[in-house]
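Shipment paperwork, digital attachment
Item: protein structure file
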Amino acid sequence: MAMTALRREGKRVSTLISSPNLRSSLAPSEEQVSFGVRSISTQIVRNRMKSVKNIQKITKAMKMVAASKLRAIQVRAENSRGLWQPFTALLGDTPSVDVKKNVIVTISSDKGLCGGINSTSVKMSRALHKLNAGPDKEGKYVILGEKAKAQLIRDSKKDIEISITELQKNPLNYTQVSVLADDILKNVEFDALRIVFNKFQSVVSFLPTTATILSPEVVEKEAEAGGKLGDLDSYEIEGGETKSEVLQNLTEFQFSCVLFNAVLENACSEQGARMSAMDSSSRNAGDMLDRLTLTYNRTRQASITTELIEIISGASALTG
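Attachment content:
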C-alpha cells in the first residue's frame, strides 16, 4: 500500500518535471554540474564551521594565558602601591596645578586584543593636553607602548618627545623602570609630569587614573605659597644638603616609584581586559557555530529531499 502511494506521488512529480517550462528552470547548467551544485553550499558551511572552531580554540587559549599572566603581575602591582603612597602624603597630588611646561606620560600596551584600555588612555591624554594648552604654555608627550604611539602619532607627532615600546617584553622590575625614569628626566624639561594609566580594580574593571609629579622648583614655589604643600617648611633637613637638593632627590625618587606602579597597574588592566575580551569572543564563536550548524543541517536536509524526489521520479519512469 505504501509502495503504491509512493509510485503515485512519483508519477505526479515526474509529470510536473516533464513540463518544458519547468524543466528549463530546474535543470542545472553545465557549469553547475561540473562544480556539484548540490554539495557546494554544504561544503562552504562546513569550511566556515571549521574556521570558527579554530578561532574559538585560539581565543580560549589566549584567555588562559592572560589569566596566568594576571596572577603573576597582580601581586607585584598591589605590593608596589606602598611605594608612592608616602610621597602622596608628603608632597600631595595636585592635578589642577597650573604650570607652563606640561609633559604627559601615556602608558599603554604593546599588543592589542585587550578591549578599550589603550583608547581610554589616549583620550584622557588628549583631554589633558587640550586642557593645559595655551599661548604661553607648552605640552609634550612621553609614550610608553606601541598602541598609544600608533594613535597619538596621527595628530600629535610634533608634540611627541620620547616614545618607548616593548617595555613589557621581559618581566619588569624596579631597576629597569628607575633607569627609564632617569632617562626621561634627563631628556625632558617639565614643570609637571602627568602620568596617565589604567589602575587595576578587578578582572572586568579598571579605572583611568592620572598621577601628577611637580618639578622641584614648582614644589618649592607651591610650598612658599602655602596650600597643600605649605607644611614642607615644618620638616627639618639633616645633613649638608640644601632644601633644593632634597626636593630634587625626592622628585626623582617619586617619579620612579609612581612610574613603576603605573606600569604594573596598566599591565594588570591589560591582562584583565584581554581575559574579558577573549571570553566574549569565545562565547560569540559558540553562538556563531550554533547558527552555522543549524544552517548546515537545513542545507543538508534540503539536498537529501531533492535527491529523494529524483529517485522517486526515476523509479516512476522505469515502472511507467
